[in-house]
Amino acid sequence: MRDKQEVEIVDFLLQVKECLSRATRQYPSVSAQTVHTLQSQIRTIISSLPEDLQSCLKSSFSSPS
User: Which domain of life is it from (predicted)?
Assistant: First the structure.
């Protein structure tokens, strides 16, 4: 992710959020551990961004999709 522009990272995170949301709705067999792991990775990526983006994304990712 280091060589990506901020806009690419945000776009990626939003796509992952949508896929994760869709997967948990359509495929209840997706384990809670998988969801937790992905959410943890998302938080790690968000924490690497500038503070202003972190604030926006944290609020976006804390609300249900």
Answer: Eukaryota
DSSP symbol at 63? S
pLDDT (tens digit per residue) in 37-57: 988 999 999 999 999 889 888
| Sequence-distant (≥ 6) Cβ neighbours of residue 13 within 8 angstroms | 42, 45, 46, 57, 61
Please report how the helices 51-62 and 6-26 are oriented relative to each other, as an axis angle in degrees rounded to 10: 10
**What are residue 42's phi and psi, to 5 degrees?**
-60, -45
Collapse the DSSP code of 50 into the 3-class scheme (helix H, G, I; strand E, B; otherwise coil) and give the result. coil
The residues near 1 (Cβ < 8 Å, ≥ 6 apart) are 9, 12, 45, 48
Contact assessment for residue 61 and residue 46, using Cβ atoms and an 8 Å cutoff = yes
